[in-house]
TrEMBL record:
Signal peptide: none annotated. The keyword Methyltransferase does not apply. SUPFAM superfamilies: L domain-like, Protein kinase-like (PK-like). This is Protein kinase domain-containing protein. It comes from Pseudoalteromonas translucida (strain TAC 125). The lineage of its organism: Bacteria, Pseudomonadati, Pseudomonadota, Gammaproteobacteria, Alteromonadales. GO terms for cellular component: cytoplasm. Keywords: ATP-binding, Leucine-rich repeat, Nucleotide-binding, Repeat. Residues 204-428 form the Protein kinase domain. InterPro entries: Kinase-like_dom_sf (IPR011009), Leu-rich_rpt (IPR001611), Leu-rich_rpt_typical-subtyp (IPR003591), LRR_dom_sf (IPR032675), LRR_domain-containing (IPR050216), Prot_kinase_dom (IPR000719), Protein_kinase_ATP_BS (IPR017441).
Amino acid sequence: MNTLEQLRSGALSGARHLQLVENLTDFPKEIFTLADTLEVLDLSNNNLSDLPAEFASLTRLKRVFLSFNQFKHIPAVLAQCPALVMIAFKGNQISEVAQHSLPLTTQWLILTDNCIEQLPASFGELKQLRKLALAGNRLRTLPSSMQQCTNLELVRLSANNLTHLDNWLFELPKLTWLAFAGNTFNKAQCLTKSSLENKPLSDYTLQHVIGQGASGVIHLAKAANKAVAIKLFKGAITSDGYPLDEVNCCLQAKEHANLIKVLAYIEQGSQLGLVMELIDNSFSNLGLPPSLQTCTRDTFADGCNYSSQAIYKIVQQMASTLQHLHANKVSHGDVYAHNTMVNQDADVLFGDFGAATNLAMLSEYQRQQMQLIEVRALGCLIDDLLSVCSDNNAIAVKLAQLAKQCMTTDILQRPTLSQLSTQLTTQL
């Protein structure tokens, strides 16, 4: 993090990345002294409400973070920034997105947790857009022009006021990760019926935090000398939607050998929770989340390597798991290596239903399309894993062919999850 004092003194001359958190109410003019070099500007967690007209002079600026400020509109000057690819306005008070207010270069747009009721028709001009976060707004419809955004890969629409979704959304050729729980047409009103028991939190002794995500905190806990993991939800809207929808999807998914086992749930007043089987410490994350550079695709630690045999076994299990979920009318929405746990024997445990959606309200056609969207996600997972595979054998070749089939932009040419599972059980 930097300071205004450093900026004013010239100590940051030539900087490519600038972050200021100083309760700013006005845009610091001194930032323009970095116009020749500045590529990333982070002014999140201040009190800004507008940007000056001179902002467009930051011609090298690629990424701007303005989350948790006081913006009520998207400043039109952003559309004049020639190099901007990423824009973040999470947690403001934006109610208006004016026509042509965003640069055509935009690839990643974060508008989570605002007050947006509609998007402009000009939104369809953002043909380079790959990642779009709109959860926690007041959208009632999506502009039909968005079907021109054919590079969209990840879309978050949960916790809005959408009354339906048009078929064109499910037909976007590169759409891979889609979440839309908690809208007017599919918002959960109460917990779904489950054979699992509603346990009081007082039955457990919380010991320490072992994990944390957007929607909740995971604790190591004990009950009757048995160690378990308890996810306690924060109760607020997250980047993926409402906790109630996440819990319901988790319960609706039922049991599968490769899903993290849910033992019970907790519903006490406003406190929701899930009691889960503790994952053996021999399991670790299959990959790491996407970076600013990869945008939608996972990353891996330096030196990470998986054999083609291990990848094949992982993919078999993932296809079976996804087939099970869709049979229960649940989409995961976040099929990624970083949400997948694996041990040295390539045994898989899959979880994190934060972006999951109950598909029961969709038409049969849309449910089928949703399945093919997640097939593409599995193809990307295979492709990512092959990037850290040094094998050059028949198994690797078959996996590469499978990834290509799953990722094709001709959606109807993708295999279904059932067909994929059958292909994966054939002998190599």
